[in-house]
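re: that chain from earlier
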Amino acid sequence: MIATSLEQRARPPTSPESGDAGVLALDALPVDAHTQAEERHRRWCNVRRVLLVRLDGVAGVLASTASFAAVHETMPWTQSTLLAAPEALALRPHLQAVDEVVTFNAPWTASGTAALNAEPSTMRGDAEMHLVRKLRRSHFDAAVLFSPSSQSALPAALLCRMAGIPLTLAHVREPAHGLLSDELLDDTAGDDDTRRQLALVAHVGMRTADERPRLRLLPKDTHQMRNALQQAGLRFGQRYVLVCPGGGGARHCQPAAFAAAADVLLDAWADDTAVVLCALPGEEAALAELRATMPQRGHVLLPTVSIGELAALAAGARVVVATDDLPLTVAAAARVPAVLPGEALRREMNFS
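^ sequence. v structure.
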């Protein structure tokens, strides 16, 4: 198991000097703010069924897992249901703080819109009404809306209001009035997604001692990847760099940049460290191009791996080189250094 801190209760609030995720301790707040924070926390501590909403895909759900753990550790008596995009079902066996997963194609996301547009026009709005009825039947006491900084949480907030969920928490850029019971001003544009969501749940007094993403590592994935590495030519116990080409959006790099980064790392270590190349579904072309760029120094696995298999590979790696959010977040969950290709070219970086 990659992370095992879910058995621990969340740490008590500490002073700002302790460096806690940018969230002030209650004792450091002005009297009125202190009273408001205590009242928020008291209301949320009465929650028994909570809905965790993250609708933008697998990487977003994984980035929110530390916050899921904060909810579980602060309120271990709650039953948690995750509302996510259908592709996030691949994470279900690997989630530690979630009791149930419900899927929904949100029309305010790119993937959700594509799926809904494929339906007949006569079904327009049916998915939203079906979800509202399902959520209303589930009698949730509260909902936490985990949205990326590029996306508004208010459409999900409206659905939660229609479902009769009394407590709702989300980031906002301007007051949401009656759509939310608790809101946090979205001034965290410089933070990474994991820390942004931790700040959100801390607004109602939920914290965790381990602020890294969580991902349960399954023995079958570890066994399968160990066999795959040996079939690819690695000796048992040989260390390796895991290179995941493709993706990245604005951070996209050409295959030559990944190859150069791997060369720099191997030259710096000057030992028998190998290079392992892998790709997620849809990235096969990038993998083939990278393999052609570095034929002598790469050990190639199967072109596609599952989320669990990627986690198993990352957990055994010396460093993960990637640009896409998913492998980078998986590496963080595995407690393995991750680096962008351009950063790896800075030779002063030192990885053990």
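The chain has a mean pLDDT of 85.
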